[in-house]
Amino acid sequence: MKIVSAILVILGASLLVFALEAKTLDPYKVLGVERNASQREIQKAFHKLSLQYHPDKNKNKGAQEKFAEINNAYEILSDEEKRKNYDLYGDEKGNPGFNAGNAGDQGGYTYFTSGGPGQSGFSFRPDEWQNKGGSGGSQSFSFSFGGPGGQRSSGFGLDDIFSSFFGGGMGSGMGGGGQSAGFSSSSRSQFESKSAPKSIRAVNSQVYKKEISDKGMAWLILSYTPTMKGTQQFESLIEEVANSLQGALQVGSINCETESSFCKELGIHPRREPKIFVYSYVASNSGSLVEFKGDLAVKSLKTFCQEHLPRFSKRIDLSQFEFASGTGETLPKVMLLSTKKDTPVIWRVLSGLYHNRVAFYDAQVHDVSEPTVRRLGVDALPAIVGWLSNGEKQILKTGISVKDMNSAVQELSALLDSFEKKNKKAASSQAKKTQSESGDKQIPLLGVSNFDALCGETTPVCIIGAFRSSRGKDKLQKILSEVSRIIQI
């Protein structure tokens, strides 16, 4: 009898503790966000906490349980339907029988009602068990554990209560399900994500060849299989970095279960956990995938991405550099003048987007009063100066001011597009002019009527060539024109 009494006392204490904990397991409080928090705010909070308490990173006592709570909370708040149900009923399943209390309603504690006629378990009604406290009033708790095996509808059985105290199940004698404390089924389903990342674009071999391979834009790519643990955490990390570098890189994910041969071809097939890669242009003009092996932290991944952005802009010393005009080159040139010691990220991004279309340069200057800057006609920094393929110089923009990288890339891209069009017109005009000049200086056809005029006594040297076909005529024209040009020089 004493043993039974002791068990009941422990059970009562356990339920009391559980009741007190139920009040704090509000998913909003677990993630530390307001009830009107946006999905972006919820995602950021989840990412930060999940990295902090991840069992692989945090070996402290209670970290595993905390990690499970975080995943449960995110599972509710990241799903609009579950979140709505929780806000209305206090239960993500939308069961009105699971009410989240509020001030003045059962003392603000969670009020559980479950079970029903014919269901076994324990039931404590507000009038049966009261906890005195707080301003002389009473606080009531109600629990009902029903269903097979003595497990309540919300998935927390009696065996779990005792497991949290003793580290093991009570055994079948108390009707427990044998499930130990730690990861609940819902947290495991969140941690062991079975679905593909929802907000990152899926990449297959066609997308890779058409939009990624050697297109000049850096990509952040996640390779995974649906059964791998931690996919949600990797996705959250990638999204946060992509948002901070919006405009500088694109993101994508490759499901190496459905794209197995493609992943093996690229050499990015994950083994035990997802992998992160950056499509980099650092090693050569041709891009390549480089694996990220640093800490799973926003700062580390962001730095890694910045290091692997395109580097197609040539850093120059402005005082020792001169652009040759009219060299016959077809590509226009643009140069960024700024006070930055290194090539700015935005300029590196643009150099990738316009690779093989525009030649990029950049130089560090300290003030517009410098002689080299004044010679270029620049009155404010940062500034972009351009040279058309015919050698004509143009001031594209001075005193550049942007609010963020994404808008800066868009604005400067429009500027470079316009400059490219001007260069095409200039190149076309130059070609027509050259053709016209070449036509004007064609070697005349020698005949009886004009022989004396061309090769008479007044002509010191007369070079005569003969041909048999139109092709021979054109070839002879080029040879004699070049000889004539050399003699004139």
From TrEMBL:
Residues making up the signal peptide according to the UniProt record = 1-19
Q: Which UniProt keywords apply?
A: Coiled coil, Signal
User: Which positions fall inside the J domain?
Assistant: 26-90
Q: Where is this region: Disordered?
A: 125-144, 176-197
Which portions of this protein are annotated as coiled-coil regions? 402-429
One Pfam family of this chain = Thioredoxin_6
Chain intervals with Low complexity compositional bias: 181-193
Q: What is this protein called?
A: J domain-containing protein
- Organism, as annotated: Rhododendron griersonianum
